[in-house]
């Protein structure tokens, strides 16, 4: 260690010795020459008064990257709440009713179905596993829902189901990235980042894109699922913690008053602005803005993230557990954030990976507990948005990164102690609700055992195209130039799912 | 070296004008001097130089072909004709300057060779133009009749226009299927192009099929390539139309299926076939599903918007395609009745107004009548009692009022019945909740009292 320090010191001394007066004069000559040349060029414009100070003007977006922009087309919704069940819930126990599968329970899966298919864990010939839940048709729409979600039937007519969504990824990380960025590999911006980049955010005291997680873990794909990819980093999701301070270090340190903090930030931003005029790097603006945003957030965030102040009946409706990390708390927060003009709220709930390896991942046990944890909060969220007149201008999306197999998982080609299902990307259920969505619609159909979509198959890109459409974008024209070409959220695919639009 | 090559290649579009100029000059001189032949020396000199610069042009052209990634098929004819022109220049030179070793050229009439050279240079130049500007660039401004005379593809998009009145009497084939196939398929399957030896411009040809047999199997769409190829995955080699062409919509594919399954009827109307109206809905004139007024307003003055924004009020166009504005006080909770005047320069443009969480009082209702296009109004989280809400009946486009979390009183509900366009009133958490009426104004206006509850059920506490 000492040696390294000595080396550094020696280098500094050598550097100092190397710079002689001659160097100074020489550098002055080129420097001054350059200055002189510059002034000649500047002086060339005969119309420009010589004494005028050089002034760089900033556009609204330069100074505040979250300044709002109008969408190209009239939007149906202002904000999005995306509820992601990380791990992927079993559509066969929640929404996709398959009576035939019930009859085929415990029979060998036909070889023809398995040919050319890749599974994460299933080996050899698995047995079919009938639905573990009881289903009923609910609401005026008569859409199916299982007894795992007893509250949900109250809002079933608000929802439009997509019964045959498919993805080409069968592992959590890539599938989550695909679901949120349109590509199974790292580096693309998430939907929320695209939305905030394209529209900005109305509330100047809150971030435009907020992420809340529950279930004890963050998604397998990491923070990239709410990353900004190649978009300026100011558009990435801001993750708020569910326990303790919502944002770390949001309190002022001891002995630092708010005024002192303000003047500190002002001074830093002044320096940064000078830096920007020199290099014109947009990341500097993002930094300036983040300082200012952080300062304003200090007041606004603790207030909005505090669910204690909500009236009792609302807290009961959602079933919140203040002070804990819970999906219910996050649902209530999502409503508060959207009410306060946040553009995109992303909720991740971990624990849906029902392989049947233990009690908590069994489709007849652990899954039921997970369903109970979301049933009341989601129903409450939709009702609460509705009664506040917010459901007309908010889009709520629910789904996982893929679905689950109609076959029982047989990890290591052995019978397992609990009933579970493997990853399955060929057909799974998602739903949307809110502005511009056809209430009570149900689009797409799977085969008798829920293995493949046979009608109304939609891809992840189609879902993205539809979300962007509702926000007022044409997904084919909403692009960002990067590495010499224009990138889209939907890349070269995606069709708007007209069937679920009002 | 590569840079130099590329640079020289890019000089080609400039260099080409030299031989063109020289050759035309030579030809003009020949024409002018057709009787006396006293300029022969000059003409020979001109053609000699035409030939020399042509060599340079050919070389630079070849470099451009190498450097800019053109396929050989694209440049083939331009390249060979360019070389032919160069050789021809030297032949002309030899002939006119009277070089003895090429005396046999004399047997060839000079008028003919000059004309040939003219044709050659024109055609080479034209092909070059096609490469840089794209095929058909020159004839683009002409009507289709001229274009098809010169052998260019001309396919007019035929619109399929069905209305409530005529859809049943429209012919299924002629008014729907035929235009649909014309728009999406015929550009490749026509008498001139006939990809896969298949032509789809008429029913007779369609029934003949293509190189792999019939495309329509009567009543069996799944076995008819005309349908089955449409539903293959887009990246399948046999998928039609090819991936890069405009695809058929889902509705259009369903129509083709229906048409084949009905035995590809030719003369029947949609009504005679008793087809479901839903199949054709996408061809009906689309109702503009827009909640905002159907009028166009001028752009709001930028200065005023800047001023309003400076004050802390959020102002935003509802979309790039519209001058209507959405105005919100989300960042200005101190907004009060007196600040409303500030909005008067943009009163024509406001369609969405969010005054939620501000200091406004019941006096605001009368002021709001100055916003002629107001469609969505949010007054939530204020102390309004609703006294004066009747003023808003003057607003011709008002569709939604949000009064949640206010002191709105039930007695002010009945005036809402006179609002002609009102669709929704949100009254969650107000004094009015005790009111019984769910709908007003002939059921058109929905009153949402909110206060939803989710009673506890046994399943809430069962842990598995």
UniProtKB/TrEMBL annotation, chain A:
Coiled coil, from the record: none
Signal peptide: none
InterPro entries hit by this protein: Alkaline_phosphatase_core_sf (IPR017850), DUF1501 (IPR010869)
Pfam families in the cross-refs: DUF1501 (PF07394)
SUPFAM superfamilies listed in its UniProt record: Alkaline phosphatase-like
Name of the protein this chain belongs to: DUF1501 domain-containing protein
Organismal lineage: Bacteria, Pseudomonadati, Bacteroidota, Flavobacteriia, Flavobacteriales
UniProtKB/TrEMBL annotation, chain B:
Keywords from the UniProt entry: Membrane, Transmembrane, Transmembrane helix
Signal peptide: none
Keyword Transmembrane included in the entry's annotation: yes
Domain Cytochrome C Planctomycete-type: 185-244
Coiled-coil zones: none
Pfam family, one: PSCyt1
Domain DUF2231 span(s) in chain numbering: 11-132
Transmembrane segment boundaries: 14-32, 44-65, 77-96, 108-128
Origin: domain of life: Bacteria
UniProt protein name: Uncharacterized membrane protein
Higher taxonomy: Bacteria, Pseudomonadati, Bacteroidota, Flavobacteriia, Flavobacteriales
């Amino acid at each position: 260690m000492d040696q390294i320090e000595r080396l550094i010191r020696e280098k500094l001394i050598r550097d100092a010795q190397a710079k002689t007066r001659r160097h100074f004069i020489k550098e002055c000559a080129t420097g001054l020459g350059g200055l002189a040349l510059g002034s000649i060029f500047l002086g060339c414009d005969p119309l420009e008064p010589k004494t005028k100070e050089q002034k760089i003007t900033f556009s609204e977006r330069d100074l505040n990257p979250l300044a709002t922009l109008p969408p190209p087309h009239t939007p149906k919704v202002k904000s999005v709440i995306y509820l992601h069940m990380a791990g992927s819930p079993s559509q066969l126990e929640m929404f996709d009713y398959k009576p035939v599968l019930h009859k085929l329970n415990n029979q060998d899966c036909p070889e023809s179905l398995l040919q050319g298919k890749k599974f994460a864990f299933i080996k050899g010939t698995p047995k079919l596993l009938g639905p573990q839940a009881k289903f009923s048709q609910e609401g005026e729409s008569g859409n199916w829902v299982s007894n795992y979600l007893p509250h949900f039937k109250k809002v079933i007519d608000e929802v439009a189901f997509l019964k045959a969504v498919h993805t080409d990824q069968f592992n959590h990380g890539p599938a989550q990235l695909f679901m949120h960025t349109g590509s199974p590999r790292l580096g693309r911006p998430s939907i929320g980042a695209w939305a905030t980049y394209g529209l900005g955010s109305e509330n100047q005291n809150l971030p435009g894109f907020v992420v809340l997680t529950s279930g004890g873990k963050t998604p397998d794909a990491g923070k990239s699922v709410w990353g900004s990819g190649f978009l300026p980093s100011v558009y990435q999701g801001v993750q708020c913690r569910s326990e303790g301070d919502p944002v770390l270090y949001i309190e002022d340190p001891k002995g630092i008053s708010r005024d002192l903090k303000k003047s500190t930030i002002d001074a830093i931003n002044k320096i940064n602005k000078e830096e920007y005029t020199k290099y014109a790097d947009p990341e500097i603006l993002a930094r300036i803005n983040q300082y200012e945003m952080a300062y304003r957030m200090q007041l606004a965030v603790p207030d909005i993230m505090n669910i204690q102040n909500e009236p009792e009946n609302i807290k009961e409706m959602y079933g919140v557990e203040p002070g804990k990390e819970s999906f219910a708390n996050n649902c209530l927060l999502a409503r508060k954030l959207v009410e306060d003009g946040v553009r995109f709220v992303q909720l991740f709930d971990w624990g849906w990976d029902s392989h049947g390896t233990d009690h908590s991942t069994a489709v007849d046990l652990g899954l039921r507990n997970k369903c109970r944890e979301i049933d009341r909060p989601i129903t409450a969220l939709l009702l609460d948005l509705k009664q506040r007149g917010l459901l007309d201008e908010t889009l709520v999306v629910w789904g996982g990164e893929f679905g689950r197999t109609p076959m029982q998982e047989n990890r290591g080609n052995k019978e397992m102690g609990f009933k579970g299902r493997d990853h399955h990307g060929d057909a799974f259920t998602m739903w949307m609700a809110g502005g511009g969505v056809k209430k009570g619609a149900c689009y797409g159909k799977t085969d008798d055992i829920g293995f493949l979509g046979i009608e109304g198959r939609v891809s992840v890109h189609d879902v993205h195209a539809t979300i962007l459409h509702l926000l007022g974008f044409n997904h084919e024209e909403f692009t960002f130039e990067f590495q010499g070409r224009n990138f889209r959220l939907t890349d070269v695919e995606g069709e708007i799912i007209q069937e679920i639009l009002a | 070296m590569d840079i130099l090559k590329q640079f020289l290649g890019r000089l080609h579009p400039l260099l080409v004008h030299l031989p063109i100029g020289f050759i035309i000059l030579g030809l003009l001189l020949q024409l002018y001097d057709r009787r006396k032949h006293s300029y022969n020396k000059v003409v020979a000199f001109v053609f000699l130089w035409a030939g020399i610069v042509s060599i340079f042009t050919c070389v630079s052209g070849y470099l451009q072909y190498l450097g800019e990634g053109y396929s050989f098929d694209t440049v083939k004819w331009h390249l060979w004709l360019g070389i032919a022109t160069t050789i021809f220049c030297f032949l002309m030179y030899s002939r006119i300057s009277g070089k003895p070793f090429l005396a046999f050229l004399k047997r060839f009439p000079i008028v003919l060779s000059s004309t040939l050279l003219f044709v050659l240079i024109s055609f080479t130049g034209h092909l070059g133009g096609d490469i840089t500007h794209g095929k058909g660039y020159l004839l683009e401004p002409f009507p289709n009749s001229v274009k098809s005379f010169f052998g260019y593809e001309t396919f007019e998009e035929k619109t399929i226009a069905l209305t409530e009145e005529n859809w049943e009497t429209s012919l299924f084939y002629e008014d729907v299927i035929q235009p649909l196939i014309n728009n999406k398929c015929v550009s490749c399957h026509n008498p001139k192009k006939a990809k896969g030896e298949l032509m789809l411009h008429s029913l007779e040809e369609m029934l003949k099929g293509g190189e792999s047999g019939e495309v329509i199997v009567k009543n069996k769409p799944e076995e008819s390539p005309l349908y089955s190829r449409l539903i293959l995955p887009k990246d399948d080699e046999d998928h039609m139309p090819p991936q890069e062409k405009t695809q058929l919509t889902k509705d259009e594919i369903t129509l083709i299926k229906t048409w084949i399954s009905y035995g590809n009827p030719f003369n029947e109307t949609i009504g005679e076939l008793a087809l479901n109206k839903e199949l054709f809905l996408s061809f009906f004139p689309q109702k503009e599903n827009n909640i905002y007024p159907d009028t166009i307003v001028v752009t709001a003055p930028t200065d005023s918007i800047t001023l309003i924004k400076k004050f802390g009020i959020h102002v935003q166009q509802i979309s790039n395609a519209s001058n209507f504005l959405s105005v919100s006080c989300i960042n200005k909770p101190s907004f009060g009745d007196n600040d409303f005047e500030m909005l008067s320069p943009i009163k024509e443009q406001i369609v969405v107004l969010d005054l939620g969480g501000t200091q406004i009082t019941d006096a605001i209702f009368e002021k709001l009548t100055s916003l002629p296009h107001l469609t969505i109004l949010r007054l939530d989280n204020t102390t309004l009692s609703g006294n004066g809400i009747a003023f808003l009946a003057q607003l011709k486009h008002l569709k939604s009022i949000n009064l949640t979390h206010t002191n709105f009183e039930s007695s002010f509900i009945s005036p809402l019945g006179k609002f002609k366009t009102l669709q929704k009133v949100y009254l969650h958490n107000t004094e009015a909740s005790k009111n019984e009426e769910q709908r007003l104004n002939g059921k058109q206006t929905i009153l949402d009292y909110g206060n939803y509850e989710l009673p506890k059920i046994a399943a809430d506490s069962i842990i598995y």
